[in-house]
Each structure stands twice: as C-alpha cells, then as structure tokens.
Specification:
Four copies of one chain form a homotetramer.
Chain A lengths: L8 E11 L2 H11 L3 E6 L2 E5 L9 E5 L4 E9 L2 H13 L3 E5 L8 E5 L5 E5 L30 E9 L2 H12 L2 E7 L5 E7 L7 E5 L8 E7 L3 H13 L3 E8 L6 E6 L5 E6 L13 E4 H4 L23
Parallel strand pairs in A: 1-4, 5-8, 9-12, 10-17, 13-16
Antiparallel strand pairs in A: 1-5, 2-3, 3-4, 6-7, 7-8, 9-13, 10-11, 11-12, 14-15, 15-16
Amino acid sequence: MTDYTSFDIAHLGNVELFTPKFDESLWFFRDLLAMRVVAEDGDSVFLRCWDEYQRYTIKLTASDQAGVGRVTFRASSQEALERRVAAIEASGRGLGWRDGEQGVGPSFAFTDPDGHPMEIYYETERYVATDDKPALKNQASAFPGRGVNARRLDHINYLATSVEDNGEFVRDVLVGRESERIRQDTGKYAAWWFHFQNKSYDIVYSDDWTGHSKRLHHIAFAPDTREDILKAADIFLENGIYIESGPHKHTINQTFFLYVWEPGGNRIEFANAGSRLLLDPDQPVVEWSEEERKKGQAWGMKTIESFHTHGTPLVE
Amino acid sequence: MTDYTSFDIAHLGNVELFTPKFDESLWFFRDLLAMRVVAEDGDSVFLRCWDEYQRYTIKLTASDQAGVGRVTFRASSQEALERRVAAIEASGRGLGWRDGEQGVGPSFAFTDPDGHPMEIYYETERYVATDDKPALKNQASAFPGRGVNARRLDHINYLATSVEDNGEFVRDVLVGRESERIRQDTGKYAAWWFHFQNKSYDIVYSDDWTGHSKRLHHIAFAPDTREDILKAADIFLENGIYIESGPHKHTINQTFFLYVWEPGGNRIEFANAGSRLLLDPDQPVVEWSEEERKKGQAWGMKTIESFHTHGTPLVE
Amino acid sequence: MTDYTSFDIAHLGNVELFTPKFDESLWFFRDLLAMRVVAEDGDSVFLRCWDEYQRYTIKLTASDQAGVGRVTFRASSQEALERRVAAIEASGRGLGWRDGEQGVGPSFAFTDPDGHPMEIYYETERYVATDDKPALKNQASAFPGRGVNARRLDHINYLATSVEDNGEFVRDVLVGRESERIRQDTGKYAAWWFHFQNKSYDIVYSDDWTGHSKRLHHIAFAPDTREDILKAADIFLENGIYIESGPHKHTINQTFFLYVWEPGGNRIEFANAGSRLLLDPDQPVVEWSEEERKKGQAWGMKTIESFHTHGTPLVE
Amino acid sequence: MTDYTSFDIAHLGNVELFTPKFDESLWFFRDLLAMRVVAEDGDSVFLRCWDEYQRYTIKLTASDQAGVGRVTFRASSQEALERRVAAIEASGRGLGWRDGEQGVGPSFAFTDPDGHPMEIYYETERYVATDDKPALKNQASAFPGRGVNARRLDHINYLATSVEDNGEFVRDVLVGRESERIRQDTGKYAAWWFHFQNKSYDIVYSDDWTGHSKRLHHIAFAPDTREDILKAADIFLENGIYIESGPHKHTINQTFFLYVWEPGGNRIEFANAGSRLLLDPDQPVVEWSEEERKKGQAWGMKTIESFHTHGTPLVE
C-alpha cells in the first residue's frame, strides 16, 4: 500500500496549449481571463494568472491544430524530484533532462502511457511583480479587476485510450492519490481523478471514445467564488465565446463549474470547490457506477453530449 | 532546514470548549451553526460539522469559565504519529497515552509551552450517517440547509505568554510550517501563523497581553462562500449574538472573516479563503511590521480593540 | 395610448395553491422555504414569507389535483381600487364583492378570460410579529436563517388557451404594462410578461399547449441573492425535491432562476433580478422571435422540454 | 394626505460632479467603475453606466473644488413634468427652462432650499449602442466585464443646513415619499430618506454640521450583487483608492454598502438592496432615534467618524 504521508509532486506546474487561431486565443486568455503576458518566444506567448507564484501558467503556441503540449509538474523537493525521476526511468517512459522555460530549472521529460508529453522539475524562480505589484505582499501580483480574474491553474483532464493504464501510471509512478472514479458496467473506468496535496483533483483521465491518443479534454482555472463563475458566464456571453455547459455543480468532487471553448477550440473550465479539501490522509476512493452517472450533474442537469464528442485536437 | 515534503500532522482533529452557559452555548452550536449532536457524556456534548469525516468536531463542556480544553491533531500515518510522539517526548512535554473519545484511537497527550492541553492520534473511525445521509456519497453527511451550515473546523488561535516559545514548539516538534507572522519593533512576535498541509493556517499563537497562560483567542469554522458569512451575520443579528468584527477581509492570509462571541464568551470566527491555497513547497514566510499592522485589515477597517482585550477564560 | 405615470395595481397580493399531497407540500413551504404558518382554516393553511408586510403570502389547500386557486392583487389606493373594479365590471368579468381572508379587506372577485379566479382589494392589515420580531424594525419579521429564506413572493406565470386574450385583459383592464413577449412565426404570442411598478414582471401568460384552461405554469419567490438560489439547489438536492431546471439565467428579463416541483406537483421558481429595475416610464417592449427563442437561456442552456409539457393541474 | 398612487418623478436622471483632479477622477469612473465616455465638452466629460437607458449618467467637470453640480430628475410623463414645474414655480424656487444636455430634452431649472442646482425633464433620447452592443437586447449596452461594472446610478445623498426644509421640499413639491428618517433627541432630523418608485431611496438629506450649504455627502451606484461590492473593495485596494467604510450592511434601509473617496474627494457609494423593494403603497415611515443610531450599522460596525466630518466641497 502506498504511503500518502508525503506527495513527491506538489502541484501541476504549467501547461502548453496549441491553437490554430493564435490571435483569438491570445485575446481570450489575456483579455477575457485577465492573464498577463510575461514573455514571447517565436510562435509562443507565456501568460500568468495573478496569484501564480511562478513566472507563468500557460504557454500558448500557434499550431495547425488545437490540443495540449508539454505539461509540467513541480516536485516537492530536490529529493522528491530525484525519487520521481528514478521511478519514471524505471517505468521505461523517461526521455531525459532538458532546460526548463521561463525560470523553471532542470526538467526531466517523459510521457504518460498515452504519449502526452510531460516534465517534472523542482527548481523554479519566483515571479517578481513590476507594475503589477499587489497591495498586499502575501499575493503574487495585483488582482487585475477585469475579466474572469482567474486566480490560478486548477487541474488538467486528459483524454486517453486507456484510462486504466494512464491512471495507474499516475498512481504508481507519479504517486498521485486517486480521489474519485467512474466504473462502467464492463468494469472499465470511464474516468479517474487524482490529486497530489489537499485539492480534490489535479490530473484526470477520461476515456477517449475515438481511440486516438494524446488528446485533451480540458484544463481548468480556479476563480475565488461561485459568483466569479456566474460573472464569467456573462463575460463569455457578451464576447461570443461558446459556453458548452454550466454554470452548475458537478456530482463528482462537487466543484461548481463552467465550460467554454476558447477560440482555438480547447475546452476551458472554471471551477470552484468552496471550502472542500481532502484533509483526511486516508480518504477512501469514491466510485460511481454507470447507473449513477446517468443521473447527470448534482442539481440534475444532464451531462452535455459534447463532453463525449469534443476533444482537442479534433478528430474525425 | 526542515524538509516540508511531508507533514506528519494532517490537520486539527477536534476541539474541547468550556462554557459557563452550557444551554445557551449548545443552542449556538446546534441551532445557529447547524452542528449535529452525536453524543452526550456527563457535562459534555459532542457536535459535528456536516462535512466532517470523523465523528465529531467540538466537545462542549459545562464549566465555571469559558476557554479551551483539549485540542487534538490527527497524524498522517501510524509512522508519522510515532515520529511526532518521539519528538514530543524528547521535548519533555509528553504526558503519555490515553484513549481517544468518540471513535478516536490511542492518543498521546502533551502540552504546548503555554500549557494548553493537546493530543495527537492516527486511528479514527469514519462517521456513519443515519438519518442525515447525504444525496451525494462524496460528502460526510447531509447539508443541513439551516443556520451557518459550517462545513468544517478551520483553525485554532491560541493566546500565549510567549508567541516565540509556542511557535517554535509547533515548528520544531509538531513540524508545522510557518506562513505569516507579525514582528513588533522590539523584535518580538505579536502573532505567528502555522499550517500543516495546503491551508494557509491551522494553528496560530497571539501574544497574551495579560501574562496569563492557557487562554484562547478563537476557533474558526469554514463555510463555503463569502455569502455564507454575510448570511451568518444576519443570523447572528437576529439571534442577539454579539458580532465583534466583520464581515471583512484579513490582511494576513487574506481570509474573509466574521468574529462573534458565543453565549459562553468564546470568540468564534467564520473564515473563507476562496481558492487561495499554499501549493508551493517553498512558500516564503510573510512578515508584517508593527507599522504595517497599523493599517488595519485589508479594506481599511481598523482592527477592533477587543481583539487585544478579550480572550477566554476572562481575566482581570 | 395608456398613461403609465400611475399603476392602479401595486403588486400581486397572495396566491392560493392546491395540492393533492397536503402534508408534503406543507413541509416544502414551511420547512424547506422557511415560510411561517400564520393560520389554519379547514383544509387550508396560510403561510408567509419573512419580509411580507401583509399577514400571508400563500394559502395552501388540500385538493384532488394540484393547481392555482384565487390570486389577489393589491390596489394602490381606494380610488385605484374603484377605478379597476369599474373597469372589470365594464369588461363583463366581474363576480362581485366578498370578504378577504386573513386581514385582507373587501375584495372584488373576477376571472381573467381563461377563467382563473382573481380578486382585487385595497385594505389590508399589516403583519404584527410576535416571537418572530426582527432585529431591525424596517423588516416585517425575523430572517429565518434556514432553508431557502424566500424574502417575498415575486410573480405568477399562468398557462392560458389564449395568451393574447388574457394579456390584453391585463393590459387594458388591470392596466399592467407589458415588458417582454415572445411572438411566434405565426404571429401568435407564445408568452407575454406584465409588470405593475418597477419589477420587470408580476404576471405572465404562457400558451397552454393542451387547450385546457385555468392552469398554472409556476409561481416565483424572490430570495436576495444568486448565492441563495445556489444554496436552494443544494437544499432541494438533499431533500429529494425534483429540480427541473437551473440554476441559470433567463434570456427574457434576465432573471437568475431555479425551477423545482413542490411535492404536490406545482412548479415553483426562485428568481433573482440583481439591481435590474424598470425605472424608465417609457420602457419599450422587448419582443423575441421563435428563432431567438431557440437559442435557449442566456448562458446557452436549452430550455427544458418539460416547460412545455408540465403544468398544473396535470392533464392527459 | 399625499396620494402615492403615482409618482410624477420617475427617477434620478443624472448628476454633475466637480473635481479638482480631473484626470484622476476620470480614471476612477472610466477605468475602475468601467463607465463609458460618451461625450466631451469643454472641461467636462459625460460617462454612462452599462445598463443606463439614457445616454449618460455622470457629467464630470474640472473645477477648483470637489462637489456636486446640477442634478436632474426624469418626470414620468409630459403631464407629470408640467405638474411638477407648476409646483416648483409656486414654491418660488423655479429658475426657468433651459436645454438639456446629451439627448435630454427641455429641462426646468430650480434649486432646493439649500441651493443645490436641480432640473426636471421628461423627453430623453435612448442610448444607441455601437461597438458596445449587448448580447441580450433587453439590456442597454454590453456588460463591460471589468472593474466595478456599476449597472446604474442609485441615489444621491445631499448635505443641507436644514434637513427639514429640504426634505419638506422633496416631499411637498417634488412629491417624493419618505421611507426612513433619523430624529435627534432635540426633535430635529439628522437625515431623511425619500424615494420615487419602488426603490427604498433615491434622494437623501443629511445634516451639514458645518453650516455651509450646497454640499454633497455622496452619490451611489448599484452593482448587481453583494459579491460585486466585495470585489470592488479589492479593486479599490489594489488601485490605492481610499476606502472609507464597509463593506457592511446599513441598518437604515438595509443596503449592503461600500464607501470610497474618488480621487477628487467626492464620496462614492456602491449599494445593493437584494430583493428588498417598497411595494406597499402605504409603507409606513421608519423613524430611528439618536439612541438607536448609536448602535451603529446592522452588523454592529460603528458608523465611521468621517461620515460627519467629510463632505464636498471641503470646508474648514
């Protein structure tokens, strides 16, 4: 049995997103989400949420197709990094060390079984605010006071050809702890939720119905309140952003949610967990059946069909 | 340097409160906070918050004076418990093993340097809902839908004759991590905040201006939203509960707060942190000067005078 | 052109609801909505919202079938009452004077063209709080601090065989002002919204697809905030009340809404308008086409099918 | 007895504010409140709230001193306008007709007994959105999604040498209806609240402790929710705007409030009334004694001292 007195991975580090509509996607993250551009490099722009202690949150890269690129994880210490790298190498999925970007130190590259590119690192430079100095010094940078004001990145939800294989990799090699899962009548998992510290999830795998690999279901940001998410819906309505589902409350992990598609096609969630944290070191896994899943979301809204037809990159 | 890849203490377990007005205090916790009575034993009643995975949250005990009794901490594992017990014994503050109450397993008793009684345990029974079964099985019991609906205990703030001595005990023996502190011009700490996992604080020490020991500044509960706290203020207004300060936003750790005095005289806080979590394993400590403290709370409200004159038990 | 410098009708007075499950319906209004029982009379119970200045809000009556009984309107003055009574008599829909109930003075009975029973009155006794005295004397009674805490009745939405006939009656005889409407491609109205003072609607007619008459689509209560409505959804979830739709935001009149079915089958809405008021004495009517209506609600949720299949009493 | 079946004044029209720091004040209203500049004229700029049906809300004018200029009221109809003009002329306070600004039609100028300049009009052009077209056509212009997002102007609170004289003028000549008032032990009113339609107040007079005349206590805007006001506090904190008091809940009329001083020195309030409306045509006046006033605001916060020392223009 795995010992969960310690998590070698502290949190999701940052995420690269591909977009075929670079300018519109940049407008979405910068102007509608109020993220700050901190650097540009070739076809990419690096953006940060206002209470991100590291330099950047999202690397947005122009591409033929939407989708997710490299996703990084910050280790809890140098020793934790070394432990995880050893485990990854032992799993045969290691790709070797490389330099991190934008203040991120040495990063060890690998892939999950589905082939999604990942890296793990420990060293990182803290963001130094300039004209965005916060009024309170226990905050990374000034509260923007516009748009969705996303405080921080929350989680990533991958699509994968095998939820089991990828979930087991997170559980056994990255040592994430499962919080909830959906088990189909066939015994196969439809989705599997994992977390690293007290948040109820940081990384999720859902079944890719197309059989393709390396695809993204969504990434999520965490505003502070449910009212922020209601306001976000108004902002997306006014700006012609496709609202796919919500605001509503998830049955699984009980997060209050809103899903939209950014102009490049990637699904973006805004999620709020209230004061719900997984403080229990022995938190039992919650498993949902196919029958239970049919009840829809917490307040009865049916899960939208496109949750099972839309992922990025788009495939036939 | 302490390694914070792991916390041997998972969270504050439960708190015993003394009250000279037992019936009125019971009404406050049961009827106004919507806590559920799970057991009675002699002069004590055990009450729980609706999303507490353990059996109880607060033990309320009739007494001559208000104040705080035994406070417990849950260890992250059996090994973590043993490590902390060894450290406590080495500190000379250990008092030996005793049986826990209400499903709590073997508990090791000790005191902090101020003399506050504490215990640490690992084994605990999960609460089994009966007529309070929740609609969603990832919740400990049904949402009460009345009163303040406090989801869970959040933190305890002790008064102590020496903030330094007690803070160092938490830091070195319990291995809590400091998040913020106030340093007076004299160099002495006026208050010191510690946390065990991702919450920004679980245990706090403030200077006891009276020179007495073993006193309480307040305990806090965590409702889900700031609106819950605004509604709580209306509920306390209607029920004649003394509202001491708030709703407002703390500068330190940025929690949205409301302070009231329960009928027995103990100060009770309702606190909401939004989506702010300390995810960074290297989070630097934030230190506030006497000068900065004079600015009051985040939105400018002066810190109320009685914060520095009222504690329990009351002293001359 | 009608002169809207004055409204002879001040507001919806109170509503009688029929229920085939009296005890369960009473539990819904009293325990879940936190309405107070002020009187009982035969098969009926009178309940009030906490900030209702009159004695009661809802008369709940045991019956074979769900549905709506007598609905009353309070006139703005004795002269206004007399003007409206004269107009109603001239329309041929008057039924004569009767005594009001529970402090309501002389009431003139009539029906709308669909046959829904209505009354208009001016004299009314103010509610005198006893053990529910509010802390602030500018409030009718104490804030209950439990359940949905519905502040006041908001509006009624009837079903009718002819939206036009009934709407014209409200417009011409009761002198309500239209705020919004849906016009089908055939030219017929699918729904028509009317208001008496600054609220954007008080009485609505929707097309009864069954061809039956005297039926109810829903009545609505006004909690103070959108968060109240989110909390209401949790309360209904925990208590097994069928949540039909929402929380979401209406396109029409932009109210934030939640629809549930009380145990007797009547549809109940909880609606919040924020700070949106119709202050303009010349507010133009907003007309929506069938095409626009297909876009669903404000944030994109499709209007639920049962909005066009469920009304009370139920018919084949 | 005045007949309140009809209000000849529909609502506060718009307000001219003077500022000795024009650029900073413009930044406050345009950038922090998200008001839109619709016209410039000499030393003045006209700005509008996003759901204002008329062209503008505030006329900001450079001046030596802060303070309030001309305040306008929209009549409910042409006849209502003529009735009020006749009454004003009869009171001896009329100054004659002049052209309105920015789409406002013929306006009749007058002063209240304190000498504050006022105008009344009926004709007005509706705002035509261009690049700020709203997604929903029942809204005046697009929701800005930044800053305080103030929906509309709410009320004005004047200082006056005689609360009684000015209040009687509003009551008898403008035919506003009193909602609440504070009566000092001497019998004199300290403040008097008046409303025109369902809002609980539109115009207020408070005692000017300096004996000067024509001064302003504050003007208020109405965001949609209490959360908007909490967010506003964060925005003002980050932008160095002086927060004078709140967020908190008023005892009088129960509005949730936040007071700041815009850079020019004028006090600006953000107020939310929830779903509280004065629907009762016979609403009794609520009078508060000096003793009651000492209890402070609804949740116990003492009324800030500067409420009785700061007004604009500043005087010795």
